[in-house]
Design brief:
The structure is a single chain. By secondary structure, the chain is α+β, with helices and mostly antiparallel strands. The protein has a domain of about 80 residues: Arc Repressor Mutant, subunit A (Orthogonal Bundle). It is about 60% helix and about 15% strand. The protein is built from six helices and five strands. The strands form two sheets. It has a three-stranded antiparallel beta sheet. It has a two-stranded antiparallel sheet with strand order 1-2. The chain is extended and about 70 Å long.
């Protein structure tokens, strides 16, 4: 018989979700939990350098690519353009990055590291390398490759779905 609520009205029984939907195995939850833990851990260390995690991603990307157009940098760092613009303003003020107009297309801006930005990034490398090792500790090299491939596929799936 149905359950009764105050006032004599019946409450509907909740139907369990189809399949085996459990918080402990729900991929969005697991990814979010791991990402939050990693970001919180890294944020404390990068704070010592006066950096945020997104600023560090910008430094890493510019160190790796030497120079990027604004749109390319937004895509490579997964930082939305308005947020990236604010971060670059602060980083320019701190003299970590510089921007220049591209002669062929004056609407476009190229961003690169300054010597101070390069120095700052290089001082963070030991921590970044160590923390990356911590995150994959007890995973085999093959498992790390599978994890990288799986996360890239999930990202691509979401973006493919958003475009359609």
């Amino acid at each position: 018989m149905g359950r009764r609520q105050q006032g004599g009205r019946r409450l509907k029984r909740r139907t369990p979700p189809a399949g085996d939907l459990q918080i402990e195995s729900y991929i969005p939850y697991l990814v979010n939990r791991a990402a939050t833990a990693m970001l919180n851990y890294s944020a404390l260390e990068f704070e010592k350098f006066g950096l945020t995690v997104p600023q560090w991603r910008i430094l890493l990307t510019l160190w790796q690519h030497r120079e990027c157009r604004f749109g390319e940098l937004a895509k490579l760092t997964s930082i939305e353009p308005p947020t990236l613009s604010r971060l670059l303003n602060a980083m320019t003020k701190s003299r970590w990055v510089k921007r220049r107009r591209i002669e062929e297309d004056t609407r476009s801006v190229a961003v690169s590291l300054t010597p101070a930005g390069t120095d700052l990034f290089e001082r963070t490398v030991p921590f970044a390398e160590n923390v990356n090792k911590l995150y994959v500790d007890r995973l085999s090299a093959a498992d790390v490759k599978v994890l990288q491939r799986a996360l890239t596929t999930i990202y691509d799936n979401v973006h493919r779905e958003r475009r359609s």
